[in-house]
Automatic annotation (TrEMBL):
Name used for this protein in its record: Helitron helicase-like domain-containing protein
Span list, region Disordered: 1-40
Bias (Polar residues): 13-22
Family matches, as PANTHER family: ATP-DEPENDENT DNA HELICASE, PTHR10492
Length: 212
C-alpha cells in the first residue's frame, strides 16, 4: 500500500540505509528499483520509493486518512508540540466600511466547542506550579552591565547588584541565609527588583532556631 503525496511535495533521493542528518531529521531508506525497491504506474505516472512518504498501513486502513509516521530522534520535535497542537484558535482581522460612517476595525476569533465549555464553566485558563524564579549565574565581574553615554561613569563606579552578588551580600548579613544554597533562597526570600536585594518572606513557615 502506497500513499502518494501531492504535487507540491518534492521527491527524495534514493538511499540504501536510514541515517540521521546533521539537523537531527532522519533520512529514510529509499531503495531504487535496481536495489529491490518497488515501483508502479498510477494514473499514467511512474511512482517509485522517492515519492512515498513514511506511513503505517494499519493506520491508513483503520482511519482511512493520510497519516504520516515520522521517527522522532531530536529535540526539534518539541516544536511540533508547541507550534501545531497548542497554537490556539484561528484568528482574523476584518474591517466594516460604510459610506456614512468612519471605517471601523474589528478583531474576530473562532472558539471551538471544547474551549467554549471550558470558559463557560470558568475553568482556569493558565496555571504554573511551582513558581519558577530565574536565578542569574555568572563569573566574578562577569555580570551584564547596561549603560548609555550619559550614565557610563555612574554604572562603572557603582554597578548594580545581580541576584548572585546580592545573595553573597545576604549571606554576609543573615545567619539563616548562610545555611541555604543559592537555589533554595527563593523559598524563604523574595527578590526586590527596584532595590536589587533579597527580602525575607512575610508569609511562610517558621524555621526553628531562626526568629522572624
Amino acid at each position: 500500500m502506497y500513499e502518494i503525496p501531492n504535487a507540491a511535495k518534492i521527491s527524495k533521493p534514493f538511499q540504501t540505509q536510514t541515517s540521521t542528518s546533521d539537523d537531527g531529521y532522519p533520512k529514510y531508506r529509499r531503495r531504487s528499483p535496481d536495489q529491490g525497491g518497488q515501483s508502479a504506474t498510477v494514473r499514467n505516472y511512474d511512482i517509485d520509493n522517492r515519492w512515498i512518504v513514511p506511513y503505517n498501513p494499519l493506520l491508513l486502513k483503520m482511519f482511512d486518512a493520510h497519516i504520516n509516521v515520522e521517527l522522532c530522534s531530536s529535540i526539534k520535535s518539541i516544536q511540533y508540540v508547541t507550534k501545531y497542537i497548542n497554537k490556539g484558535s484561528d484568528q482574523a482581522t476584518f474591517s466594516i466600511q460604510s459610506p456614512n460612517e468612519v471605517e471601523t476595525y474589528q478583531s474576530g476569533r473562532y472558539i471551538c466547542s471544547s474551549e467554549a465549555v471550558w470558559r463557560i464553566l470558568s475553568f482556569e485558563v493558565h496555571d504554573r506550579a511551582p513558581t519558577i524564579v530565574h536565578l542569574a549565574v555568572h563569573l566574578e565581574n562577569g555580570q551584564r552591565v547596561y549603560f548609555t553615554e550619559n550614565n557610563i561613569q555612574e554604572v562603572v563606579n557603582n554597578p548594580r547588584d545581580t541576584m548572585l552578588t546580592a545573595f553573597f551580600k545576604l549571606c554576609a548579613q543573615d545567619d539563616f541565609a548562610k545555611t541555604l544554597t543559592y537555589d533554595r533562597v527563593p523559598s524563604y526570600y523574595t527578590w526586590n527588583q527596584s532595590s536589587k536585594t533579597f527580602q525575607r518572606r512575610k508569609q511562610g513557615t517558621a524555621v526553628d532556631g531562626f526568629p522572624e
